[in-house]
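Title: Comparing notes on inverse folding

I've been comparing how different people in this forum approach sequence design from structure. To keep things fair, I'm posting one structure and asking everyone to reply with a full sequence. Here's the target:
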């Protein structure tokens, strides 16, 4: 089940991450891209927080040349993703997501997460 294209890689990494199999997602990503462990983990952590893997700077060189070939990446808004993380008992990740996408400080982000 090795990905042959960036689109397949995107599907596999996203699917494994959503299944809670981040280690496997990191392994697939590293085998396809040759990224170091730290960078691959950062990409997968971003996917786990609701970001698209192509948004990570290290993934720029692996994106398909044909932008129309990319999977549709528009997803739920920040509040929806935070609610989903909270419902899954992952409040710390929700706070981290808010801080990363908004630039809020720790306390501001916690207040935002708690308000949802």
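Reply #1:
Here's my take.
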């Amino acid at each position: 089940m090795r990905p042959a294209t960036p689109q397949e890689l995107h599907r596999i990494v996203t699917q494994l991450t959503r299944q809670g199999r981040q280690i496997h997602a990191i392994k697939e990503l590293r085998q396809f891209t040759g990224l170091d462990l730290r960078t691959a983990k950062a990409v997968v952590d971003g996917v786990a927080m609701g970001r698209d893997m192509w948004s990570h700077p290290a993934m720029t060189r692996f994106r398909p040349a044909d932008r129309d070939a990319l999977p549709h990446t528009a997803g739920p808004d920040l509040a929806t993703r935070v609610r989903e993380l909270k419902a899954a008992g992952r409040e710390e990740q929700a706070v981290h997501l808010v801080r990363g996408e908004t630039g809020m400080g720790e306390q501001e982000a916690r207040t935002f997460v708690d308000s949802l």
